[in-house]
């Protein structure tokens, strides 16, 4: 294993530091009998890339900070649980009826069936389409007596799971009045977003009329700190109370009681551009796949805080290993013979540049000529989706968008997928995903998802590298931080110091 000093030298060569001075939330959720509570100071790894739009990557920032919520939420077992909807029933194969609970928007207006239907309609019409709705056409309308009917063009047996997505949060009508959707003061969560300072910080105040009970913290002061070492330092010096995504190189420097390790459904992978360039050739993709040594990445780069990549779905999903199918139809690897490729990644997750550096060495040993490009994620995503790189190293929570294992296949690996970094358009894959989408029985749906995963692996559209564990830094006086394997929540009503 390489030394910490060597790791820091390597990181210094790749990174430009950014200087910056239903899950149980833990503890007692009722704080009415006590003082006003202290404010929480939180350091997040990813700055808002889309002005806090709920329809893209920023949606997770809003849900992690306790600002937004939807009709449903994921429970600890990955099943749909009540949120703004207290119950639901399936009317037929294309229609679901959701009964709303009594709740209030942060602007003081009531959560009504008309408001919920309007919010879901705006999400369905958003461009680009939220990943949770990739390949799905939905229509929402008020149905009377505080109920909302959601219908789909095709049968969708997991619609309640789909509606758990942070990108399908319900906002007040006021949020949609000025074109760009604004979550400032218009959401329903325990904390109200009241002020943003570009991509550097955000201020949240406790929303006292939250239906789930009054939060114990008076508010949240969020800082967006892309550099992982800076986040760890801020926790050590007491500048912040919670710091997410602590780099493995910094884990040992934190006191044992402040270091929390959580298995997640996040997979780090090498996405190969199948649409153009060198990796349009399946034989060259096979050559890249054969060049990769995943055990070295898990043991060395991640220092044991990750498992070698096995597929799209990692060990946090305990059902996946027993259902995994062997990929078929893979091309025979060609000789790279000095083919020049550009591998891109981002530094918000500080291990990724080092992963890319190790991959560079492995690919060069196989005969490729490799150029690395490292940027902050918000400055990289557009180019990656446009296919401007030959390969992209990404860390993706496979269950983030919907909690349904099929959804990431539809959004990331189908011709019409909204987050298709590999630019994959393969009839065999599309047919397998379509079959999985139409399967209602949970076990059979998982079987179909694993069959589709095997087709994606067979196309060598991506190479699974590691299945990551997340390290969260939590101050000694902090209680109730939500360590969510799905990475949707961090701060809740019981989070306090």
Structural overview:
- Mean pLDDT is about 90; it is low at about 1-35.
- This protein has helices at about 5-15, 60-65, 115-125, 160, 230-235, 250, 280-290, 295-300, 350-365, 380-385, 405-415, 425-435, 440-460; strands spanning about 40-45, 70-75, 80, 85-90, 95-100, 140-145, 145-150, 190-195, 200-205, 220-225, 240-245, 260-270, 305-310, 340-345, 370-375, 390-395, 460-475.
- It is globular and about 65 Å long.
- The strands form three sheets. Strands 1, 8, 9, 10, 11, 12, 13, 14, 15, 16 and 17 form an eleven-stranded mixed β-sheet that branches. A four-stranded antiparallel β-sheet has the order 4-5-7-6. Strands 2-3 form a two-stranded antiparallel sheet.
- The protein has about 500 residues and is an alpha+beta fold.
Brief sketch in words of this structure:
This protein has helices spanning 4-14, 58-64, 113-125, 159-162, 228-236, 248-251, 282-291, 294-301, 351-366, 381-385, 405-413, 427-437, 442-458, and strands at residues 39-44, 72-74, 80-82, 85-92, 95-100, 138-144, 147-152, 191-197, 201-206, 219-224, 242-243, 259-272, 306-308, 340-346, 369-375, 391-397, 462-474.
């Amino acid at each position: 294993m390489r030394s910490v000093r060597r790791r820091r030298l390597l990181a210094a060569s790749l990174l430009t530091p950014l200087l910056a001075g239903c899950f149980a939330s833990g503890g007692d959720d009722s704080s009415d009998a006590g003082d006003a509570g202290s404010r929480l100071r939180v350091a997040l790894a990813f700055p808002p890339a889309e002005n806090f739009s709920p329809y893209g990557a920023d949606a997770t920032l809003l849900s992690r900070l306790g600002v937004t919520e939807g009709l449903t939420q994921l429970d600890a077992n990955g099943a749909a649980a009540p949120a703004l909807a207290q119950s639901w029933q399936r009317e037929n194969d294309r229609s679901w009826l959701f009964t709303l609970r009594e709740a209030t928007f942060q602007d003081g207006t009531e959560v009504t069936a008309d408001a919920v239907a309007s919010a879901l309609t705006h999400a369905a019409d958003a461009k680009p389409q939220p990943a949770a709705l990739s390949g799905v056409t939905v229509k929402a309308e008020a149905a009377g007596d505080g109920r909302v009917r959601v219908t789909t063009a095709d049968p969708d047996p997991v619609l309640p799971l789909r509606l758990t997505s942070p990108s399908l949060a319900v906002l007040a009508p006021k949020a949609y009045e000025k074109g760009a959707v604004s979550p400032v003061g218009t959401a329903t969560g325990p904390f109200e977003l009241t002020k943003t300072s570009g991509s550097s910080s955000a201020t949240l105040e406790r929303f006292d009329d939250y239906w789930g009970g009054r939060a114990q913290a008076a508010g949240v002061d969020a800082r967006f700190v892309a550099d992982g070492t800076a986040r760890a330092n801020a926790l050590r010096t007491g500048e912040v109370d919670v710091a997410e995504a602590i780099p493995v190189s910094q884990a040992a420097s934190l006191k044992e009681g402040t270091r929390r390790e959580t298995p997640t459904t996040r997979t780090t992978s090498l996405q190969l551009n199948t649409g153009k360039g060198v990796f349009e050739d399946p034989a060259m993709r096979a050559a890249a796949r054969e060049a990769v040594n995943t055990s070295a990445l898990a043991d060395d780069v991640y220092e044991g805080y990750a498992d070698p990549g096995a597929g799209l779905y990692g060990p946090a999903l305990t059902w996946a290993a027993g259902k995994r199918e062997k990929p078929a139809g893979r091309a025979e690897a060609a000789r790279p013979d000095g083919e020049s490729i550009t591998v891109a990644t981002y530094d918000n997750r500080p291990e990724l540049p080092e992963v890319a550096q190790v991959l560079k060495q492995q690919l060069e040993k196989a005969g490729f000529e490799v150029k690395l490009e490292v940027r902050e994620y918000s400055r990289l995503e557009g180019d990656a989706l446009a296919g401007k790189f030959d390969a992209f190293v990404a860390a993706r929570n496979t269950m983030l968008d919907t909690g349904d294992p099929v959804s990431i296949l539809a959004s990331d690996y189908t011709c019409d997928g909204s987050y298709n970094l590999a630019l994959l358009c393969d009839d065999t894959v599309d047919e397998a995903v379509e079959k999985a989408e139409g399967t209602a029985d949970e076990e059979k749906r998982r079987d179909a998802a694993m069959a589709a995963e095997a087709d994606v692996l067979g196309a060598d559209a991506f190479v699974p590298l590691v299945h990551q564990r997340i390290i969260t830094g939590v101050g000694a006086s902090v209680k109730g931080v939500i360590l969510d394997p799905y990475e949707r929540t961090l701060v809740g009503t019981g989070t306090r110091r």
